[in-house]
Amino acid sequence: MTTQPPAATAAGLAPENFSVLDELLRDCCLELMADYGLPASQTEVDPEAATGVAVAAIDFSGRDVRGTIGLRMTSSVVLESYRAAVGQAIQMDSVEANDWSCELANQLVGRLKNKLRQYQVSFNVNSPRVLQIFPVAELERALRRRFVCDGGTFAGYLDVMIAPGFFFVPKPSDAPLANEGDLVLF
Amino acid sequence: MPKKVLIIDDSSSVRRQVAGALTTAGFQVLEASDGIDGAEKIRTQNDLALVICDVNMPRMDGLAMLDSLSAEIARRQLPVVMLTTEGQPEAMARAKKSGAKGWIVKPFKEHLLLGAVQKLTQSQS
Q1: Which is nearest to A57 in space by CA: A73, A70, A39, A43?
Q2: ipTM value of the model?
Q3: pLDDT tens digits along A131-171
Q4: Which CATH superfamily does the domain covering A5-162 fall into?
Q5: Record: contact B106-A180, CB cut-off 8 A
Q6: Contact at CB, B88 and A184, closer than 8 angstroms
Q7: Each residue's pLDDT tens digit, A5-52
Q8: Cβ of A109 under 8 Å from any chain B Cβ?
Q9: What residues does each domain of chain A span?
């Protein structure tokens, strides 16, 4: 499902670009959590209704796009995805839980970067960080997708600036891309 | 004597995840949290059987570390596998040129990681 142009305007994006990024953000979020055993579906649950949340964000910058991608998760999503990955239980608000939230944001931006390859868009990625104060107003202006999975909710945010005149148009690439989970031996 | 694998990643969660898989399979594990820490451990640990290295890290990224150690890695025939969220062909080509033997895109499949580690360390027994 693609959100209609008014949301694109709110996010400061041309409708064509909004459509592409909106779908990519949705796919990246769903695939990320599915890989950790948390299949999800979209929801419009008010993000403020849930307590016990973690927010991690990561900045990226390239010739055609730059911005911030954020991931807001209820504690169960952080803890369950960690258990699926590492096979151990951790406490929310622990150093390990914060680190894992950052790693999930890192993997989310990695997925976005890999998917943007088809548009020959690339960017450099900064180190992820946990946001202690959830900047609701700032992130709610951004492109966002909310999801619900077993026992929790999560949302992906994409606050992006696009170079003037740039539009996402798929372009063939002659070099193969490695996808999530792939192993390539040289 | 177990073979020693160095894991370089700024995420302690990923280090723990990889270490868990490797120790269960009988490897000894050493950890480093960025490229500078990793380079230091590669220089000082002469009995490493393999290195698993992230790309995007603070202070020094994995590709810069690999570039700076490419001669030493070649001399010691030390296999390096990059473990990263990146799947860009240009980055993979750079890693290969600097001597990396493999590339895995996170999130990794444990059996693939172990298979690669066992294959690349096989000749060192």
Answers
A1: A70
A2: 0.93
A3: 876 665 566 667 778 888 887 899 999 999 999 999 999 98
A4: CheC-like (3.40.1550.10)
A5: yes
A6: no
A7: 456 666 678 889 999 999 999 999 999 999 999 999 998 766 555 567
A8: yes
A9: 5-162
